Amino acid sequence: MSDEMTLDLLEAKIQELRELDKQDLLNLSSEIERLEKRLEEMRTELYANMSDWERVKLARHPQRPYALDYIDEMFTDFYELHGDRLCGDDRALLTGLARFDGRPIVVIAQQKGRSPQENKERYFGMARPQGYRKARRAMAFAERFAFPVISLIDTPGAYPGLESEERNIGGAIAENLLTMIGLRVPTIAVVIGEGGSGGALAIGVADRVLLLENATYSVISPEGAAAILWKDKKLTTEAAATLNLTAPHLLDLKVIDEVIPEPLGGAHKDRKQTASALKASLLRHLEEISGMPIEGLLDSRYQRYRSVGRYHTLNG
Amino acid sequence: MPIFKDKHYFRVNLEREPDENLWMTCKACGELVFKQRVRESDNICPHCGEYFFLTAKERIESLIDERSFVDISQPIVAEDPLSFVDSKPYPQRIEEAQEATGLAGAIIIGSAVISSIPVVLGVMDFRFIGGSMGSVMGEQICHGMEEAIGRRSPFVLVSSSGGARIQEGIFSLLQMAKTAAVRGRLAAERLPFISVMTYPTSGGVQASIASLGDVIIAERGAMIGFAGRRVIQNTIAEELPKDYQTDLFALEHGLIDRVVKREDLRAELGNVLGFFVEGR
After folding, report:
1. At what angle do helices A129-144 and A169-181 cross, to 10 degrees?
2. Which of A261, B38, B91, B167 is the most buried (most CB within 10 A)?
3. B174 and A255 in contact by Cβ < 8 A?
4. What are the pLDDT digits (tens) for B130-179?
5. B255/A158 CB distance under 8 A
6. Which of B244, B210, B243 is nearest to B227 (CA)?
7. Domains contained in chain B, CATH given
8. How close does chain A come to B229, measured CA to CA in Å?
9. With contacts defined as CB-CB under 8 Å, which chain B residues touch A253?
10. What is the interface pTM, i.e. ipTM, of the complex?
């Protein structure tokens, strides 16, 4: 099996041949066609046989579209609202107003950085208590004005550090869970990249929970599970496979509602196509849940979470 | 007089002492102490005052009016939805924990009376896979809160947990939302929820139900927080103060309401519960 880098190289070579072909120096069209076909086959094979760990790497791919890319593609007039009104403005978690198909919505989104400098500012997408409290502020805001909430989840997890603990990161997450379960507006959460544990769930309790095809959602990272359970940080492939953290697994386990397909090779291969597929799905779900009376919606949201879990009753 | 008969009474920081010994060594002060005296004083060293672990049953006994406890836990046990195998298969891990503790899961739910006030009480047992919260614990906590609603009584939860049950993957994560959901119902019914945090209350349990108490009381010596010392040092290599995630750290930073000594916890619960009961 070839890896993604080989395919990218081959793709670059084909591009070079195309340039040559254009310049009419050589007639390469049949050769190009042959190579393109081969590339397509190899890519299909590669992604059909992708391990869960490879999918984790795709979810973390540095070129993967981030929240602001989707906001750009899917919404209009994004109007960011800053600050938790308590201590600061977390750049790892953005909140704001936007229009979705003309309709005002509240967006809550975790944002990773592209450059080292931006990642420093955005804490690699790991929100601190001020981020989760800003999100809670945005939820209350949405409820007040009856705007639906769309959450875009993409985080390795809540930021672990002294500052987070001093400001009660656990309590901030817990409060969000409580707020979201009773939020009197339609809510949709989408994991667009990494759904890292409590830090993801803290903006992820919703009427609909969707995952992009190569996104992951897990109680712990494969590295974390490998270190804690296998006592060997290197056993990430095994840990990833065991955690059932990929979108297809989670759909099988019936904990998510839909998997949005990505282009072959991942969302970064065609950002517009991915965003447009996600947008279509969001519109469909939003229409469905917006049509429900709010009490009915709250009741089905409650039942969804009240009934989650796998256990069995003892005989006798 | 103890209401439970449990031959595994004596533990010091989870290290097993042979039960046939009448004496045990306190790991804190090194003194040889008489086990019966330790047991009678809620597993507190009579010499130095250090706390030893309490099993869920011992904890219940230490908090309630004598013989008032009725186990109302759901008769449920864990499944293995991910066919999870690490150093051993998850079902085997469950069975071993059940054998070692005599419990079906990592929490007991019961009705009890504390200072003459009827309550529904949930108590975690750290011996059972680190008191971790999987589907069973999540369901039991919700069941306890629903029982409290049905009986119009307060709900008291004593946490002792390392966090989510990793072996149940996404299902364990979602128990955080599940318990928060039912906690919302308890609040809507205006029934008090007293959360007692003991050593340790961390990860997914601290970041959900345990932090949602109307009143949060920590037992002295509790460890309270989201990300453990090792996680932080492994991910961001930050220097941490000595008092990181201690009871007093949590109190100072506003995570909890009060820190209470183990020997005072029963009276403390009676005191705070009294505010919610008519005619007291």
Report:
1. 20
2. B167
3. yes
4. 999 999 999 999 999 999 999 999 999 999 999 999 999 999 999 999 99
5. no
6. B244
7. 1-53 (no CATH), 54-274 (3.90.226.10)
8. 9
9. 81, 170-171
10. 0.92
